[in-house]
Design goal:
Chain lengths: 372, 372
Amino acid sequence: MSAQISTQAVSIDLQDRSYAIAIGAPLIDNPDTFAGLPKASAALVVSNTTVAPLYAATLQAALAPHYAAVHLVVLPDGEAFKTWQTLNLIFDALLAHHCDRKTVLFALGGGVVGDMTGFAAASYMRGVPFVQVPTTLLAQVDSSVGGKTGINHPLGKNMVGAFYQPQRVVCDLSTLHTLPSREVSAGLAEIIKYGPIADMAFLDWLEGHLGALRTHDLSALAHAVRRSCEIKAHVVAQDEREGGLRAILNFGHTFGHAIEAGMGYGQWLHGEAVGCGMVMAAHLSQRLGLVDTAFVARLTRLVQGAGLPTVGPVLDAHDNAGRYLDLMRVDKKAEGGDIRFVLIDGPGKACVRGAPDVLVRQVIDACCSTQA
Amino acid sequence: MSAQISTQAVSIDLQDRSYAIAIGAPLIDNPDTFAGLPKASAALVVSNTTVAPLYAATLQAALAPHYAAVHLVVLPDGEAFKTWQTLNLIFDALLAHHCDRKTVLFALGGGVVGDMTGFAAASYMRGVPFVQVPTTLLAQVDSSVGGKTGINHPLGKNMVGAFYQPQRVVCDLSTLHTLPSREVSAGLAEIIKYGPIADMAFLDWLEGHLGALRTHDLSALAHAVRRSCEIKAHVVAQDEREGGLRAILNFGHTFGHAIEAGMGYGQWLHGEAVGCGMVMAAHLSQRLGLVDTAFVARLTRLVQGAGLPTVGPVLDAHDNAGRYLDLMRVDKKAEGGDIRFVLIDGPGKACVRGAPDVLVRQVIDACCSTQA
């Protein structure tokens, strides 16, 4: 952790649920990073088998001055474990340690750890405070911010959960040094997303800095994480519980969730499915006359340049489009069985709307291959 | 359902989460009872194997004019089934029926059905609306009001859940006609509770009407349910998330939860454990000099007159008091391992405070018997 990046703060304005996102390197080794959180006699660090050996001891040492006891629970790693059974390991640890309703939880890991720790915090004794300490690029730019928590159900992703805001988000960029390149690419998918839906200047910048981001350049990462968090904070502040606007952050996710569920959770990384899903959603936008083919080609190039798949998997050899449609009908945005897509309504602007099945089928047929 | 009681309404004031409690007989057979709820294409009635055969068809018929589809899921009956496995049956049903995030859930049953349906509503797609239709006296006067939802963990009662308010509470007094007398007594425990903590005039009234209540007199039930809901609504409006005051509603519950957990969930009914727990808490209040022995005797007589146990079970033949203390340390009110008791601080007034272990042990020794 020799390289340093001075700490920047992005704030997310949600009245009495407001909080700060600290972005810098290093952060998790410093007790000051965790000053001013709610007082408690105990903290519980929740991590997984991959991240805990790398960073749990460092974080526990930084928390030690603040809490009389700092416990640790280590979960199995991966989307396939984002289940009630794994969530229950957190409750087991809390109860085994006699943790009371003031106990602060710290989510140390990627999106799966963050989503499950947040839901455990929302539910343990009907709510205890928690802090997000994301160690993957995807979690730093997206899943740790905004209070969406939950677990998967065999019939749908993130179907059980809560809107529950953390007390603070701590994005330590130095933890990204240990991130495998496949995970860096997955994180880039959620970064790229912010361009077409909200900020084409950011998309321009990304086209010039993909290489730097993929080789862990700290300055480039700092800018990408900060700008992503700013856009997300701005959207979430206007629509915390996804009554409308917030759904635009799900660009690429309707097709993406179908890929994840159809392949079996954990086969494709969430970011990989979202990357491919954005390409499919761009194609659908084009077929609806909302953007031109040049825009689709530009976005496809960027997704490909990030090291992400741009061709969808065949989920059913007999009726692939039908299988995608079935899976998309259980999306949380669906209403009365009608799928709602996040589409690009001209560069830098998103809309949420339905689309004729026949057009959706054409997009799926054009975008999928058994070679994927 | 020939006997009628005109409908009364108690409102609970929680800003944008405010709602009404309708009390009358009959109610669940009338579509008007359910007018004005959030619009949705589907409703899901959640009930159990005891209540569903009696009232599910009636409720479904009354809901039919409001929703294109009214589904039903029937859970196993009893506190022993207040688990994640049972909760998951609700999610399974919601997903099998492709229920979207506007679907309205209706909890038709007692406290267990209400707590689980509320938690399912809080968590399904991160929150859908729900309505409480309590069919037990205990649920009508206590558990259906105030938004406490959740499930049990093997190591503690209601350890996993959410504060999540219903859209409406419908207390149909005519459903109490089918309630077994043991369940009526259990409900009376939560009614009696409101006297010592808030309203001694109500305690006077109860002493004169126990017989009428135990024989299902509709006028007496209407008064008891309304007054109980009024007191609970008043307390919850001041402290929705139990930062302080709301804890007084847990009078009798600290000892009671230890009895329930120690005996195994479902052996003692929740109301039976609370009845006995109130007697124990009154004894502790007396030993701390907060009330006199005449008050303890009066409360004990009333609990006994309601058909409830007043002597606690022996949970451990070798160190019974130690076992109670261990179980009470996982109570949600405990802080840093210190048990917090709801005590009577003079008739009609409650306080929340700790007590020396030695005094608590004396109370347990004096109040428990293997004959219980």
